[in-house]
Design goal:
- The chain has seven helices and two strands; from the N terminus they run H-H-E-E-H-H-H-H-H.
- By secondary structure, it is mainly alpha-helical.
- The chain has two domains: about 140 residues; about 50 residues, no CATH class.
- Strands 1-2 form a two-stranded antiparallel sheet.
- It is elongated.
Amino acid sequence: MDATDIVTILAVFLGPIFAVQIQKLLEYSKEHRNKKLSIFHVLMSTRGIKLSAEHVSALNMIDIEFYGKTRFGKHKQSNSEKKVTIAWKLYKDYLNTESQYIDNWDKQATDLFISLLSAMGQDLGYEFDDVQIKKDWYRPISHEHIENSKLKLLQGLVEMLDGEKAIPITIESLSQNKTKNQSDKLSY
């Protein structure tokens, strides 16, 4: 038995094992990219409704999916993934500050959010410019009205429950009601 026979035997036995391992690695990479894409798609599609539960959930998944890969017990994060996690940390930190103490809070929050989406896009191979991310979306005005109405309703409810506001109640006298009911009956 010479060297070529040994190599042939090893190739016959080890070839399928290597092929399966390579296939698993490719599937893992594809799944990892798809998870990142899913987060990016949600954030891009909800960038006009940042208070939605779907948007917030996608933000909270960034730490997990852009963490990088662990191989042989070592954490390895690409440069583009680092940019994403750094942009997310800056944005998250800013979101957790008291907005009432900062002038132009919304503008700064938007700028940080745009930086986050830009970093995510670059990691995933998209080439969006910041203006496109910031302005190239659609949201019907009625959605904004509904969101503002919900916010006002919740704020009013909280103020009422905290004792800051009361529900105005008007009491009409019974004689006014009887007179009104009688005039309604006569008009038929």
